[in-house]
Amino acid sequence: MNAAEFRAAFSLAAVYMSRMLGLFMVMPVLAVAAVELDGFSPVWLGLAIGGYGLTQAVLQIPVGMLSDRFGRKPVIYVGLTVFAIGSVVAALAENMTGLVIGRVLQGMGAIAGSVMALAADTTRAEQRTKVMAIIGISIGMSFYVAVLIGPLLAGQWGLSGLFWVTAGLAIVSILLVIFVVPTPTAQHANPETLPQQHHLRFVLNHQPLLKLNVSVALLHMLITTLFILIPPQLIEAGFALGEHWQIYLPVLLLSIVFLGIIMRAAAKVKTGVSIQFCIFLMAIAIVGLAWLPLTVSSLLTLLVAFFAGFNYLEARMPALVSIFAPAGARGTAMGVYASCQFFGAFLGGLWSGLITSWHGTEAVYAVIITVTILWMGLFFRFNTHPSIKRVTLRIENAATSADQVRQTLTQIPGIVEINPALEQHLVYLRVDHRFDHQRAQDALAKNNN
Description:
This protein is mainly alpha-helical. It has 3 domains: 1-192, Growth Hormone, Chain: A; 195-384, MFS general substrate transporter like domains (Growth Hormone, Chain: A); 389-448, Alpha-Beta Plaits, CATH 3.30.70. Helices cover 72% and strands 4% of the residues. The longest helix has 52 residues, at 128-179. The protein is globular. The two termini are 32 Å apart. The mean pLDDT is 89. The chain crosses the membrane at residues 43-63, 75-93, 99-119, 131-155, 161-181, 214-235, 247-266, 273-292, 298-315, 336-357, 363-380. It is found in: Cell membrane.
């Protein structure tokens, strides 16, 4: 990467990470800290924890499309400003209604797609995978950092202080976009990065993608529910809110170690089996959290098991979406996937609050155990080709037709799918291990001549 690409990658990763920190830091805190607010109830608590997910889910795809029309940076400025306003509203809230309104406003800053598109606009095609990987790592890190520092900061400054920190992070992010993130010389409507309306119907009806979309909704429904149930249990176990990191830190470190073990084992079995195993691992952990006597050692063991399964699915499923997404439609597939992810967080907060208010926490545990068992059934006979990759080739001759491109590339071994995008002078491919990149590019060049 050159200096501009390096700057774009790390500054946009910082923007993404600061925003996600703001969304996630309160998740392990609210179930304990929000008890002091007027109007507290399990339902309002669930909405406060998962409320951001509803507006994120609804706006994720439209905001990304708006950035194609109005520009990346203006949309990002607006999104971060709305996010900052929501954080201030939540910081000033004296009752649950104000807190929920603040969280919903936070979710309206749905700039994930716009950030990814800006990253694509400011980097060369051959460096784009590295840049996206850096941003992707920052997304994963933000969750773990948030889980650790959220309780610690709340213990020092209270719930209001946590939201003021979040507002400050949003302002820092705006300054990063203004002064550090490079401004692209040209903007491209890249269907591999942002959703395209004409791809939506196909992606929504694609069976493997549908299973993955349902799965990520269930996964984030579970994690949201867990952060409603676990913090009070930690309080009962003798840990003050500011000490919860003492449990979360070893849990996250050990779960990462076990993630490596699971990934090595998963390489030797079918994809569906590895997914089913991780769902089963989470189900066993939930059973233990519901009905075993909870000591420090049992909490650690059960939470490590849950997060080991969670970590694997959180890392593996986006990669599967990328494999299954039609050539030239990855942006749409990932946009739908992200919307389902946030909608799952909203549902987790809503339904767990409702069931807790009606029947208590034991009923919540019983429902999520049932859900995980049913979820495993989605992945019987589920498999994918392990070596499918995505490749983009340039078409130099504007007069070349889509049929000519397909006819030329059909002769190249290893090409699974061809999708010419003549208006962009590109062709999007899905390929396997037999594919020869140089041979395909040479064939297109020869056809152009």
